[in-house]
Design brief:
The longest helix is centred in the middle third of the chain and has 23 residues. The protein has six helices and no strands. It has one domain. The chain has 120 residues and is mainly α.
Length: 120
């Protein structure tokens, strides 16, 4: 029997599915993502774009499938804190609708809560 759609399961699915548009964006807006990686000082930008996509694909799969969520939640948090730092370096803004770091920081906190709440 499938597990119930509890608030924790919803959080896990949201934390995982929110990576999907970022993966797609790295393919569809290649130049923009490369420019971001360059501006953040991540060189070679093309290699970092591929590393980011690979990490995001793995995180999506593990979160969606609910595999080792207590660990993956914290790994996702760490990844998103790095992204937050990169956004701060590039945009120097807080508000997400202005390209600031508010969104990845909030998402990182959600992933940390997921990791903490999923601990065995």
């Amino acid at each position: 029997m499938p597990s119930a759609l509890t608030p924790l399961v919803v959080l896990r699915l949201v934390c995982g599915l929110f990576f999907v548009p970022h993966i797609v964006g790295k393919f569809t807006a290649r130049d923009a993502s490369l420019n971001f990686f360059r501006a953040a000082g991540l060189r070679p930008a093309e290699a970092w774009r591929w590393v980011a996509m690979l990490v995001e694909v793995v995180l999506v799969l593990l979160l969606i499938l609910g595999i080792d969520t207590h660990i993956v939640g914290f790994i996702s948090c760490a990844y998103l804190l790095i992204a937050t730092g990169a956004v701060i370096k590039v945009s120097k803004k807080w508000l997400w609708h202005l390209g600031g770091c508010e969104y990845p920081l909030f998402w990182a906190i959600c992933c940390a809560v997921l990791g903490a709440m999923s601990a065995p």
